[in-house]
């Protein structure tokens, strides 16, 4: 490596700040992983089956059913949210 | 009863086997009766790093299957009397590593040793699961790099939910962070995650920081655990790690770039 190269390579680089990008990405990734980890493993299946039942009666989208799970101090909350299409609601299925 | 320490990571190639060899040698040198077990069935690396590959006759799976007894399979280290190696087999099927078999071997070892060091394979599959299941302590080996930190976090989730201690609601596994292949210069340049960054994300007790070092390859070439290379930075960092593990309060070293000579300091301005 020539002297000139040394000057160039030891200067603050365009790559500086890479570590902070890495850290930010990691914080998001890890937060995601941790949420998923604490959920009961039956959730996706539960969601599927509920969707199948609803669809027997009402034509709903794949994403019409959402199941959320939250861990509180002393108990767990399973929240089920179903969005019915407007027409179905009007018909009072 | 021996204390069982798993060296684990999730991600492969981060320095688990290097660490298992260093830790077991370090403990044995301090007079602790120690056995180090290679759980990496099919790959078999630990005996190479320990330099005892030519003395392997029977292995861990032979003992589990009752084809050999422990005394036949354990290899006594030539450099240190209180250190034994239980090698992995190269050929057998990974499923031979049964939970009952592993438990029986650990129990049989337990009375005669102070520490059992388990060198985990990479990944979060069967072998890694077996290596951590019975652990009392876990050293999570991590490189300052996104995928390694993420995998370490996953491994922490597994340790706290799927280990024997977790399943039986016992006192949880004591978890430690060991950051390896740390390059202080790149950290100073903002190119590499710092020890503080990693700590902030994983929030574990820091057992040590091992710098990226040529000494590690030299040691593995020679079959000598790097902790025996007392001149080297990595050898010293591993020595400090063992002291900390045993409860000594040793300041961390090798966190900052070495002071450069006058000339380069002037040039860097
Ligand atoms: N501190 C270090 N400095 C430089 N090289 C290192 C360091 N630690 C480990 N290495 C190198 O990294 C490679 C992987 O190390 P090692 O076999 O200990 O990792 P491992 O986690 O056991 O891998 P695997 O997941 O495949 O079992 C080896 O070539 C080793 O020499
Ligand atoms: Mg290994």
From TrEMBL, chain A:
The keyword Cell division applies. GO terms for biological process: cell division; regulation of division septum assembly. One of its GO terms (molecular function) is identical protein binding. InterPro entries: MinE, MinE_sf. The keyword Zinc does not apply. Pfam families: MinE. Keywords: Cell cycle, Cell division. Gene3D superfamilies: Cell division topological specificity factor MinE. It comes from the Bacteria. Prevents the cell division inhibition by proteins MinC and MinD at internal division sites while permitting inhibition at polar sites. This ensures cell division at the proper site by restricting the formation of a division septum at the midpoint of the long axis of the cell. Belongs to the MinE family. This is Cell division topological specificity factor. It comes from Allochromatium humboldtianum. The lineage of its organism: Bacteria, Pseudomonadati, Pseudomonadota, Gammaproteobacteria, Chromatiales. The gene is minE.
From TrEMBL, chain B:
GO terms for cellular component: cytoplasmic side of plasma membrane; cytosol. Residues 3-158 form the AAA domain. ATP binds at residues 11-18. One of its GO terms (biological process) is division septum assembly. Keywords: ATP-binding, Cell cycle, Cell division, Nucleotide-binding, Septation. The keyword ATP-binding applies. Coiled coil: none annotated. InterPro entries: AAA_dom, MinD, MinD_FleN, P-loop_NTPase, ParA/MinD_ATPase. The keyword GTP-binding does not apply. One of its GO terms (molecular function) is ATP binding. PANTHER family: SEPTUM SITE-DETERMINING PROTEIN MIND HOMOLOG, CHLOROPLASTIC, SEPTUM SITE-DETERMINING PROTEIN MIND HOMOLOG, CHLOROPLASTIC-RELATED. Interacts with MinC and FtsZ. ATPase required for the correct placement of the division site. Cell division inhibitors MinC and MinD act in concert to form an inhibitor capable of blocking formation of the polar Z ring septums. Rapidly oscillates between the poles of the cell to destabilize FtsZ filaments that have formed before they mature into polar Z rings. Belongs to the ParA family. MinD subfamily. This is Septum site-determining protein MinD. It comes from Allochromatium humboldtianum.
